[in-house]
Give the backbone structure.
Amino acid sequence: MSHPLRNDPSAARLISLAKLAMASEIEPRDTHGPYVILQTGYVPGDLTMKAADHLLGRSGEWLSFHWFIRMPAPERRAEFVFGTVSEVMTLLEDLSGPVLVMTADGIVHDAAPDEEWHQAMFGG
């Protein structure tokens, strides 16, 4: 059963990106970092209630994984990649208010999805 995206730490999952080639480029980084914050759900107010994977950015906004893997790597890293668990916890503790979702309109994107990231996060 699908649920709307929530600004609730218990609804999010922490995904380690330690297996990615770029992991060593992220500093500071803890033992299992870097990380992304993932939640599966639908955009609040979406009458189709179609669930999708979304990532939480430093801005406090969620972005569909579909668009995330199409963003240029530097923008993706700057907004969505966290080097340490303490960075993640600080963001999640400060997350409040209505769920904000980035739309594709404001995203600069490459044509092809980044398959390395897809495999690192979902194993295939």
Notes: The beta strands are 13-16, 35-41, 52-56, 61-64, 100-101. The helical segments are 65-68, 73-80, 85-94, 115-122.
